[in-house]
Give the backbone structure.
Amino acid sequence: MITEQSRNSKNILGLFLKGEVITTVAILVVLTYFLVSRGLPMVLTIIIDFAVFAIVTMSLNLETGFTGIPQFGRVLAVIAGAFAVGAIPGRIMAASMGLPWGLKYAKDSIHYQISPELTQVLANSWVFSLLFLIFCVTIAAASGAGIGWLTSRPAIRLKEAYLGISLLAFGDFFMWVGHNWEPLVGGSTAVYVPDPFRIFGGGRFQAVVIVIFLVAMLVYAYLNRLTSSPFGRSLKMIRDNEVSAAAAGKDITRIRTQSLVIGSMLAGVAGGLYVIYTGTVTAMGYSRLVWTFWPWAFMMLGGIGSTTGVLLGVMVLTIMRTMITVYRFQLFGFLMAWGINPLWLEYTLMGAVIIGVILFLPHGLVPEKVQPMLPAGRVKKLFSGGMAAKPR
Amino acid sequence: MAPWLATGLIYASALALTAGGITLLYMSTRTFNFAHASMATLGFYVVYSGAVLGGGVPYKYFPLAFLVGGVLGVICYYGLNRPLLRRGAVEITLMMSTLGYDLILLSVIQMYCDYLTFSRKLFPRRVSMNVFDFELFGVNAASVILPLVAIVFLTGLHLFLVKTKFGVAMRATIENPVLAGASGINSDRVYMSAWIIGGGMAALGGAAMSMAVTGTPVLGMNSIPFMFAGAILGGLHSLYGGILGGFVVGLTEYAGVFYLSQKFGPWVLGYRMGVPLLLMAATLLIFPRGLAGIPWAVLFGNLAGIAGKKRGAKA
Amino acid sequence: MLTINKLNAGYGKLQVLYDLSIEVPEKGITVVVGPNGAGKTTLLCSIMGIANVTSGEILFEGGSLQNLPTHLLAKKGISYVPQMKNVFADLSVRDNLQMAGYLLPFDEAKKKAEQMTEMFPVLKKFIDRKAVTLSGGERRMLAVAMGLMKNPKLMLLDELSTDLAPIIAEKVIMEVARLRDELGITILLVEQMAKRALEIGDTAYLLVSGGVKFAGKSLELLNEPELCNMYLGIKQPAAAQTLTEGGA
């Protein structure tokens, strides 16, 4: 009994020292410092980067951390959402206003003339803006889910590395399609998206940040509910032991497909929101490095299989990346002597974080909590009450 | 020789080398090496720097590129791979660790390019290595020399693995580490050698590839899906399969795109990437474990014993 | 020669052996028998440094074997013939023998390989064939030959008779007796075919659920009808057994 108690107290202490608490405190301190020394826009930039990548990383965590699918093609669903928002809503508006909307819509000479007109319409009507935003998110979610369903087809058949590599390759392929097929999103030139936030005028940036942050929090709440539901337990069961999950009557194919569809849908939403935030789509911006590998780094730092951990991981790394950008001349100015741009240190940082986490912090900042299927009290009751059959 | 075939051969040889390296590393250490990308790019920059700063034909710097790749491999093995293997890490962890290493190497490459631009007044971010080439039998020397380099190197590797005691020991360790250890073979040394050879092949392949396509700091980063596609096509369980897979992917990419662009117009060139991917997808959809997943033993009934043996339990 | 004291070992979190103590005397066959899952193979794996040893000591000729990488054990004169995967399937018989004699100088390895092919003529016949094409019995012969290549002082043999037809299995086990008698090698034999093994063995250990249930002369174990019946599936005492065999 004594050992049991002492272990418990140690756990609580450990939680305070290591886990989410200390990281959160550190994050808040740094953010406050930024707010005081650099002003609000800086903090807002951090928050929007955080929110977008938080959604992507949480979706990755659902598929990889909870279901055990090596999702090396996260960029695929992000691209689906981004391209959909870049290509479809603007076209529909243009068509209804009698402007050119077909294959020529994305051609730069025409596009630069019509996109301000479209934005102007939205800037005059709250209703239109809201409807447009909702439509964008819906369409991003739908195309993300669609691509998720498509990738689930091979995902059922292929194992581990083979699946990861195939997904990675197809993510790249989609980027190149966007880059080369001009009618989609303008190829190598950018396509502007009508801006539903223009109606806020000078407060646009703040409004975008708040909306996207709220969406991220909604996704967080949703995923927390989802993963602690019986469905979440099924996911973990499949991840840990496919055979025993199948033996327990789980339909592995269906559950994996659902996980991929939900995850890809969320990633699609993130891609769509990011496009609305930046106002443009450039195919080459959706690289494997930024939209697949960085979310992986965030997830590994935060703790694979822990949604809260992922949020912290994204925040910590976003702050660190911003710090490199902000303090690059103060801290790494010596590199300039050789003409080296200190921004490359961002890559070094990401690489070092991945390696450091793998070697020294294999479970991340917030290790996944192993939850018993039944609450401990109930298990005790079951056993103390004898093995007499009790209905569950 | 038609230009597309000449370039295609260079490109295919380069992919054969890199895909072979990936397969070798996967077979020996279960590691899908993402760092192959930057190792290849660094191989290219070694040759480029040599040609620009040291002068002479680029080919004389190829051995140096191999050496640099080998050193990078050894660093990766001792710094990352070995501790993780000892810990019994799973495949995905091993894979991610090399991704971290790759990102660090990528930043080093970018910084080196900055340095070359600033201090040496060079333009290392878009390099056409052809300007350093000379003519041989009426074609670019590269299209004769590089396939030869690949063939000689791969033959040498084959002889090493079949004829030398240490080469056979490498094969033995890859097949059965426990028994090899009990026979007195130091698996540590075998894995280190695999990383030297694999890293060297990556660098050599990257150097060769830059003779066919524009050399950029993301040369390896952009072509790693093809390297992987080659390795997967080869089935990941035989070095020769990987080499062949890389060659097939490289050649179909060039020949296939050439053929299609003749037929449908030059816009096809933009979708170059699709050809090998379709090839890989088709293979994987029919045989989810690559060419090695084909039940050869069943197809050739007389070897039926293998199947039973391979499934043997650990007891 | 080999002393194991209070060994606790297993794989990962799973503990298989509990406070196991075994003594392998020099120049003799020590037979380890027991039902499935008793930890016989784990015992050999612990000696070879493949399983996780949590506590206890393993002494070979007075020196500890713990924390030595597997390849150094071969140097000390211990050779191990695993139950499964005991040959390099993808290598030729010749290369298999060469690999088994990895630590020997070139000439000596060659000479030794010739000795082996004389000792097991089958191997000579198939010297250039891949090991995977050999039959089960031939492969087992090759495995034993590979074990002998190292001039071992101690051989660990794991379930030589698995997968073999009874007649061949018996032949292989008799071969083990010959190794002791002619070459004077100390042998630790783990066997399913308990009766035969105990008949040729000198010392015997009966392992049950990770602990020693019986230790003594191997013939004594054969004369314990209760133990034999319960754990080894040997129904009658040794004397009665001969009758049935005659009948069959």
